[in-house]
């Protein structure tokens, strides 16, 4: 009798192999199952744990977003990617979004210019104060010995 579920996906060599079934089971139970398997791998035989760490890193199984959870960091990370500029299918909203993004980019450039001018003014003020202090302080006169034949 076949112990595999009848709805299991087929691959060219037959039903899923045991590593694929284990991977599917761990994916179904989430990131904590992967971490538990990794810790048990280290406890039982350290190369197994190390192999699981490498596999989890290569396949991005450390991230919360892989298992359907949302986290703020990933949402912020998507802001700078092409997803922001992807079409939503609604032309009015896409036009509004494009205009808003253009306006925000202009405001950001203007603000960065303002900050640069502010830094330059502060640097100039500090330099002018330094030069004023230097001009007010008496300069030491070098002790030059009189000529020897005088």
Give the helices and strands, then pairings.
Layout: E1 10-11, E2 14-15, H1 18-29, H2 31-44, H3 46-58, H4 72-79, H5 91-136
Antiparallel strand pairs: 1-2
Global structural class = mainly alpha
Per DSSP, what share of the residues sits in E-state strands of 2 or more residues? under 5%
Order of strands across the widest beta sheet?
1-2
Task: Count every helix, treating DSSP H or I runs of 4 or more residues as helices.
Answer: 5
The multimeric state of the shown protein is single chain
Largest sheet: 2 strands, antiparallel
Envelope shape:
elongated
Question: Based on DSSP secondary structure assignment, what is the total number of beta strands?
Answer: 2
- Mean residue pLDDT: 77
Helix content: 55-70%
Radius of gyration: 34 Å
| Weakly predicted, low-confidence segments | 1-8, 70-82
The termini sit apart by 123 Å
N to C succession of SSEs: EEHHHHH
Describe what this molecule looks like in 3D.
By secondary structure, the chain is mainly alpha-helical. It is 62% helix and 3% strand. The chain is built from five helices and two strands. The protein has a two-stranded antiparallel ribbon. The protein is elongated, with a radius of gyration of 34 Å.
What features would you highlight for this structure?
single chain, 150 residues, mainly alpha, two-stranded antiparallel sheet, disordered N terminus
Summarize, please:
This protein has 150 residues and is mainly alpha-helical.
């Amino acid at each position: 009798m076949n112990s595999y579920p009848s709805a299991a996906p087929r691959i060219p060599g037959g039903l899923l192999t045991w590593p694929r079934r284990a991977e599917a089971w761990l994916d179904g139970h989430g990131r904590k199952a992967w971490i538990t398997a990794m810790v048990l791998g280290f406890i039982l035989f350290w190369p197994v744990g190390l192999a699981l760490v490498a596999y989890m890193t290569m396949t991005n199984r450390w991230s919360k977003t892989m298992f359907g959870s949302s986290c703020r960091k990933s949402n912020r990370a998507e802001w700078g990617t092409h997803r922001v500029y992807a079409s939503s299918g609604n032309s009015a909203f896409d036009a509004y979004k494009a205009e808003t993004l253009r306006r925000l980019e202009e405001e950001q450039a203007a603000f960065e210019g303002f900050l640069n001018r502010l830094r330059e003014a502060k640097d100039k003020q500090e330099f002018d104060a330094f030069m004023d202090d230097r001009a007010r302080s008496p300069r030491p006169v070098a002790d030059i010995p009189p000529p020897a034949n005088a």
